[in-house]
Amino acid sequence: MQWAEQFYTDDVEPEDSNFIPSIFKQEKTNFPNRGNVAKPLQTFLNNVESNLQNRTLWNKKHLNPKIRNLPEDEFEALQNLVKLQKERQIIVKPADKGSGIVVVNYDDYVNSCNQHLLSSQQQPTGPPLPYYKPSSEKDLDTMKHQIVSVLKDGLNNKWITKSEFNAMNPSDKGPGRFYQIFKVHKEHEPGTIPPGRPIVSGNGSITENISRFVDFHAKKVIHQIPAFIEDTPDFLRTLKDFNDSGNIEDTDILVTMDVSALYTNIRHDDGISCMKSALENRPDKTVPTLFLIQLLQLVLTCNIFEFDKSLFLQACGTAMGTACAPNYATIMMHSIDVKIKNLARNYNLQIINGAIAKALNIDRNAALEKKVKVSTKRIPFVITFHPALPSISTILKQGWKIMVKDERLKKIFPEPPLVAYRQPKHSSLREILVKSKLPEREKRSVKGMKRCNLPNCPSCPHVREAKVVYSSANNFKVPISTPVSCSTKNLVYVITCDRRECKYTQYVGETGKQLKERFKQHLDCVRSQNENLNKTAVGEHFNLPGHSVANMKVSVIENCRQESAMYRKCRESFFINKFETKHLGLNRKI
Hints:
globular; 590 residues
């Protein structure tokens, strides 16, 4: 709302039809200067915040809800399912079609996955080609460097922006995750595991965002494919136009076709060649086809994933769980499509008309109408749902009525913000039961800071193992409430100088990366001969006479509950204040 007010103008301008939204979503962490925000708007925001923090307005019966929306016997069954998964007796996965779930024996699931991971693609000549190969952390690091090298080339040539480079940078990413879902609609022996569909999830993987980037540009050519079907109404319109054309003869046959295991059997050379030809038909080649093909090759050849704590590399085909796979496969099939003729399954005009008659059960005009998403200009007020929350809409409306007494703000915000509830984590049966990774046996967790003890970890020699973090400026202390180590992400940390002469000076920071990755950046600032890198509070302090990196000690203060940069910055600010590191420490601006 602050930014909407900041950029509002009375000039009525048509919306920019050429506006292209960002490929990668970025969380906003900056706000306009408070002095530049209209006073009624700031009053409204303060009022909403105050009302939400006022617990007397909350429903006290639901502050600590003990009532569940599951009957006791169903809740007990849910707990037993969770327990059986942790004990590695069963696995719960979604069905391949529909919204059902499949419960299978753990050993059967692992055997089915291993059988697929060991399978091979038959070649016209020579030995079979394995679909997957064993891999290692070293391979993962090598591929990260390959991706960064190509991205730097794109950045230097101004084919991508700095923000796109940062979004696609795989430095803090890891391997994908392999799992199977099951084709319960396919025939299988009763009592046996149904046929599986292999998925390599790209979420959080080193190729996740370069795949999204390729897919964004591939979408521009998909609509040019004659066989492209946008959605069900589009398909119905095509049938109607064809049926009304009068070109259908009684002897014509409707042909349908399915390709078995398409994604994993697309040869890289064939797929890349088809994609290259398609991308050359783009009207806008600001991002060169050659650069997109380089990224596509990385997506196909750097698909490292984890299964049962082992790493694998996909050697042929493409993963079903990567963003560009559907359009990549569609473009590949288009090249095959044009060559396929004379396939028949004895369909005739009566069957076509029968299918159309079925669709006519719904209003024809509604079925054929092209659905256009209409965006609302109402600003959403997003909040995580809790049963004890007061009436958010009432709070917003009351504050809005006062705010819009200002005529300018009434033009900017003609309606109160739209309430949007965010689903709490682990609140659905699917989230509780369905996991992509294999369940690990429960281990005894010990709260506190520990070294990760992984080879070549830059932070392990500097970690201060403890269960409590103390401020060197006052008596404030923070018990570490979770098990944390150098590998922990999404946290607030503290760096302490262990020299008594410095009164154990401290620096408080935050990072969404692993602690060891962020700490390595601090080490580089201290060791570097580059004055720009040294020109940080930490870099300056540990370059003072008698200081070295050996005096640096690090610990996590808090593993943040929310994976949000804004939330981390709020927690960082809180601990900077409590540790007094702005005035008595290193959190000063250079």
